[in-house]
Amino acid sequence: MEFTTEKATAPRADAYDVVIVGGGASGLAAGVFVARYGLDAVIFDRGQSATCQCYTLENYLGFLGIDPAAFLELGRAHAQFEGCAVVDDMVSTVEGVDDGFRVETQDGKTVTTDSVIAASAYNADYLCDLDDGRFHDEGDHPVDCDEATGRTEIDGLYVAGWLSGGPHQVLISAGHGARVAKALVADRRAGEGYWEEVAAYWDWCVEDGTYGDDEWHRHVDEWFDGTVPDDCNEAFVEAVREEVKSERLAIQQTEAERRRRIERGKELLRWYLDER
Ligand SMILES: Cc1cc2nc3c(=O)[nH]c(=O)nc-3n(C[C@H](O)[C@H](O)[C@H](O)COP(=O)(O)OP(=O)(O)OC[C@H]3O[C@@H](n4cnc5c(N)ncnc54)[C@H](O)[C@@H]3O)c2cc1C
Questions:
Q1: d(CA 244, CA 81)
Q2: Which of 43, 155, 161, 219 could form a disulfide with 173 if both were Cys (CB 3.0 to 4.6 A apart)?
Q3: Which atom of ligand 1 is nearest the CA belonging to 47?
Q4: Domain of 71: which CATH number?
Q5: Is the CB of 105 under 6 A from ligand 1?
Q6: Which domain does 211 fall in, by range?
Q7: 52-96 pLDDT, tens digit each
Q8: pLDDT at 196 over 90
Q9: Are residues 178 and 231 in the same domain?
């Protein structure tokens, strides 16, 4: 199994579905969630995470006491394992372009993206050029957004973690990053015509055989039929029904797969402890 806690020195592409600014708890958790949905995502992270200001991290569920740097390294390994790139660079500006954003970095790289998640904790001055300077003023904190979902008045721009102005412990910031990522995925699905109930994204795992029998199909059909908006094209509704069912069927795992994935998690910890 290949793991890495190292950041890449440069992005591997010129265009991404999602750019995440900041690789602390919120940015890394957002990266895990969007990558698991299948979006092409990159995290730019440079500078000191507020997590490193915790002397020890003692209130993160499951960890009695963990070195904050180790927590971030494990989070980076996880995000990268799921397919989210993590690049050592600082975002200097985010500009709006047709259907998205252009992101420029301190090291002179430029990438375009459909969506940006600002997860940079203290500082979001790179947002000052957006909307002709009307959206964000230099030095302002937090960034104006819906605190629960991180959505902002600019389509495709989200704010996660401490920068959103919510309560900020590491565990809460990680949960917030995941929640913002879910809102972003739901918005993308809504853009494809999915209505609210079916636009929501669930990252669940269940035992093989839990779904798929006649009763399950009846149950899903009943729920699904109750959500369909009026005046929806029938062929599209049926296509969405099939897609929703296949998404749920795909989260099932066999016992062998479950064991393989749990072993993979242990392997990451063993690898990390052996390396350090
Ligand atoms: C002194 C102190 C002690 C604390 N103690 C605890 C504690 O014991 N337990 C606890 O749970 N919480 C504690 N916290 C709170 C916790 O650190 C934060 O809630 C948490 O780190 C916020 O996570 P975040 O992802 O929002 O930001 P961060 O973890 O700070 O991540 C933001 C990342 O973005 C990077 N960045 C910033 N700007 C850019 C840019 N333009 N381009 C690229 N990267 C950028 C930063 O360098 C950083 O790595 C403490 C905070 C402080 C200040």
A1: 26
A2: 161
A3: 47
A4: 3.50.50.60
A5: no
A6: 204-255
A7: 999 999 999 999 999 999 999 999 999 999 999 999 999 999 999
A8: yes
A9: no
